[in-house]
Inverse folding.
């Protein structure tokens, strides 16, 4: 397989994981408008927290360069992978896809032959509409199925490779992903772009539904003084359900699940539905319940141990913990936060205490979405619904 010159736009979890994966066998240029991220990568450091990415940057021979210059990024690329943020906009009830559109338009002004592969999550019908709008057919969509903190691992060992296209360019990009992966027997689906976009949204919504289900099971158990672990173990022994992705939490969160479920709900505007809306509502109800359980303890000061959703991640965008934090503030509760990744003294009007022992002393109740050895000495103060000690 001959080398393919690849440019990856966006150095978040998705972009960086793909850049490292593809740079194992092909020359890759990583492009980002944030000069700090580019400088970090140029120094061999990962701009995101991911142990495998850091390990590969430090030890593996990668054909990886980085730049913040559009001309250098786009001029000679055969394939341009777009992995820029597409946050959900509650005002428009849609993903904000402006960054994806701007990147492709900017690149086309420099390079008129490249194949574009959108890795950002977009609404169903976006890619086909963009091809028509730009009158350019070489635009594909390939959904990403990764976990924050384990993004490279999930690309090295993918559950499946999906590319929205039945053309030679789609086959070629699927082959590039297969070439970089360590797991070689990977199912490959070449589908239309609309179907590929729907696969992404429905997959994340199913995961959100599973999280919401086990959280509601846990809410029932806690409300009635039942042992949630025993119930979950018994339910999970049914092979149709399985004993995986079943650990209760303060609600689903992170970058993908909240926005993808809302986007899918928006796509259902003219289609009969009940379940998708119920998933969104269930997540809100769970955070209300968690807040009520904390308030029942009548704490003077509530401590929040880490804002991120998952261990091994440094991202707390749309974290369920933020939803609980807002609810506590609305009830007039004093909240202190332990989050060593933040250097400022305050966050959302709350005091940041970055000395762990000082934090433990200040808090009457400590909220932890996931258990941690840091809190063993104050186990009596800790409120968590983490039953299995895993994400």
């Amino acid at each position: 397989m001959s080398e393919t010159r690849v440019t990856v736009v966006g150095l978040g979890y998705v972009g960086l994981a793909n850049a490292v994966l593809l740079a194992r066998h092909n020359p890759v240029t990583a492009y980002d408008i944030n000069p700090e991220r580019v400088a970090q990568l140029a120094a061999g450091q990962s701009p995101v927290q991911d142990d495998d990415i850091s390990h590969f940057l430090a030890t593996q021979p990668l054909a990886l360069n980085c730049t913040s210059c559009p001309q250098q990024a786009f001029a000679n690329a055969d394939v341009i992978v777009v992995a820029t943020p597409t946050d959900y906009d509650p005002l428009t009830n849609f993903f904000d896809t402006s960054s994806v559109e701007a990147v492709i338009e900017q690149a086309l002004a420099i390079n008129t032959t490249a194949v574009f592969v959108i890795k950002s999550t977009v609404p169903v019908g976006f890619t086909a509409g963009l091809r028509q709008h730009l009158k350019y057919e070489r635009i594909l969509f390939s959904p990403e199925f990764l976990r924050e903190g384990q993004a490279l691992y999930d690309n090295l060992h993918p559950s499946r490779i999906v590319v929205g296209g039945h053309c030679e360019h789609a086959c070629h990009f699927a082959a590039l992903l297969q070439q970089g992966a360590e797991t070689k027997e990977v199912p490959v689906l070449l589908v239309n772009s609309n179907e590929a976009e729907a696969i992404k949204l429905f997959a994340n919504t199913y995961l959100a539904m599973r999280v919401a289900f086990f959280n509601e099971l846990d809410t029932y158990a806690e409300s009635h003084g039942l042992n949630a672990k025993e119930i979950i173990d018994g339910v999970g022994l049914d092979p149709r359900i399985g004993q995986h992705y079943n650990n209760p939490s303060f609600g689903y969160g992170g970058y993908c699940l909240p926005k993808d479920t809302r986007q899918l709900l928006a796509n259902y505007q003219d289609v009969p539905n009940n379940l998708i809306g119920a998933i969104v509502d269930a997540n809100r109800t769970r955070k209300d319940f968690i807040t009520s359980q904390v308030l029942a303890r009548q704490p003077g000061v509530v401590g929040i141990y880490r804002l991120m959703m998952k261990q091994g991640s440094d991202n707390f965008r749309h974290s369920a913990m933020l939803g609980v934090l807002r609810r506590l503030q609305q009830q007039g509760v004093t909240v202190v936060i332990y989050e060593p990744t933040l250097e400022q003294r305050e966050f959302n009007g709350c005091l940041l205490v970055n000395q762990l022992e000082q934090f433990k002393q200040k808090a009457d109740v400590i909220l932890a979405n996931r258990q941690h050895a840091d809190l063993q000495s104050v186990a009596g103060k800790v409120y968590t619904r983490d039953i299995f000690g895993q994400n």
